[in-house]
Every structure is written in C-alpha cells, then in structure tokens.
Specification:
The protein has 255 residues and is an alpha+beta fold. It has helices at 104-113, 123-134, 151-162, 170-177, 181-192, 196-213, 218-224, 230-241, 245-253, and strands spanning 6-7, 17-21, 26-30, 35-49, 52-56, 60-64, 70-85, 98-101, 144-145.
Length: 255
C-alpha cells in the first residue's frame, strides 16, 4: 500500500482547483471561511467532521459549510476537485455537512469550475449558481456514518472500524467494552439514530467502496468486509449506494 501523506492547509483559507492525489493522502483537520464542495472525478475519498464521516465515491460530492472543522482522506489515486461557494451564497445550502448524488449536469459544472480558464468573463460565477440549484434537494443520508460520543459506544465502534469483518454480536462486543447489549442498543438509537446492524452495514459499505476503488474484485471485497457470500454483499451495497458493486466499479473505469 502506498505511504500515507498528510497535509494541513493554513487556517481560514478555502482552496479551489484540482490535482491528482495518491492513495492514502490525508488532508488534516481544518476549516474554511467559505463553503466548499469536494468531488472525486476519479477515485474516492472520505470527509470527516465531528458529526461523522461521509464517503464520496466518484458519483457523489461532499459539502462542508463555512466554519466546520473537517478532514479528507483519499482512497485510490484520486482526481481531487475543490469548488468554493462564497459565504454569502451558502444560505441556500445545508447548514451542516452532507453528501449529494452527482447528476451529469452537476458533474460537468464541477469539472468546469475547477478549470482556471473561463470561457467568458463571469462564466464561473454564473455556473456556481447552477451548482447551488443542483444541490437544493435533500442530501444522501445513506452514505453518512455518524460517530458516537459515549465512551462505551466508542469502544465498540472502534473495534469495528479496525476490523469491519468482525462477526461478534452486540452482546459479545459489549463484554469487551464493559456494557450490556441493552445499554448499547439504546445508545445506538439515541446517539446515532439507527440500530447496531444498520450502522455496521454502512461501515462495511464504506470499507467496500475503498476496496472497489482500489480495484479489488467483488468477491474479495465481500469477504474482506464481513459478508459470508457475494449475494448478500451485493444486496447491502445496492441498498446503501444505489447501484451494484459491479456497476459502481465499471463507472470508475469510464471516468
């Protein structure tokens, strides 16, 4: 695996543009005075904030409003695109981070905005207005992985982050964390808004997206992420991402 590289941008700055980043590249925790959209024209990445992690494969874009601490990590060699939304225009968008599906129109707008050349004066300003309109709908909740605050719940989720293929029940994981199954089940609903099995499925899909982006087969990905057979993996992946693993991987090759 290529060596992980780290970078933390200067405080308050909001970079815009494009660049190829290596697998494992980590953009450390920072914040911007403006809003920012991040899109992978190829590859994929994760955006992490205090509210959790959003994974963005090549058919999603992440949104971070002004003033939110966040970081990014690339998975696979990534064509990283950064688009600034000026603070005065952010009132029309979500007040918290999120991830959105990328329509063909939105994709072309993001690619054009990260090219320093303008077809005519003011073209980028007008195109940003189109982007804001495209993001007026609800975000993709399925790719959001919330993170807990309670120490007992954090102990359980840390075990699964380290190895998403762990097959222990919540009761068995609770014995390691020093909490009962009933307590942990209540905490999952209260803090994360979902049950243990749903949270673990989304975590596994996050890891699966990384493996697929790196070129691993559907079968190898299913086994590595904790599914006992490819069919159950395909069903779970399709439910969360909205397309099969094979179609997602084929789409990466077409970009």
């Amino acid at each position: 695996m290529p060596e992980t590289r780290h970078l933390t941008p200067p405080p308050g700055t909001t970079p815009e543009g494009k660049g190829w980043l290596p697998h494992g590249f980590h953009l450390g925790t920072h914040r911007h005075d403006d809003g920012q959209l991040v899109y992978a024209a190829a590859g994929g990445f994760a955006t992490t904030t205090a509210l959790g992690t959003w994974v963005a494969p090549a058919n999603r874009v992440t949104w971070t409003p002004p003033g939110f601490d966040h970081s990014h990590r690339c998975y696979g060699r990534t064509d990283f695109r950064l688009v600034v939304i000026p603070a005065e225009s952010c009132g029309e968008l979500l007040a918290h981070p999120g991830v959105f599906a990328v329509s063909p129109l939105l994709r072309e707008a993001l690619l054009t905005l990260t090219d320093p050349r303008e077809s005519r004066p003011g073209a980028h300003r007008r195109l940003r207005a189109v982007v804001v309109d495209e993001l007026a709908g609800p975000p993709e909740r399925s790719l959001h992985l919330p993170e807990p605050r309670d120490d007992r719940l954090r102990a359980v989720t840390a075990l699964l982050h380290a190895d998403p293929a762990r097959a222990e029940t919540l009761a068995e994981l609770g014995r390691v964390a020093g909490a009962s199954e009933r307590t942990l089940s209540r905490l999952f609903q209260a803090e994360l808004g979902m049950g243990f099995l749903r949270w673990r499925t989304i975590l596994r899909v996050h890891h699966a997206l990384v493996h697929l982006t790196e070129g691993r087969s559907v079968l190898d990905t299913a086994m590595a992420c904790g599914w006992s057979n490819p069919s159950s993996f395909i069903d779970a992946f399709t439910d969360v991402v909205g397309q099969t693993p094979g179609r997602y991987q084929a789409g990466l090759d077409q970009r």
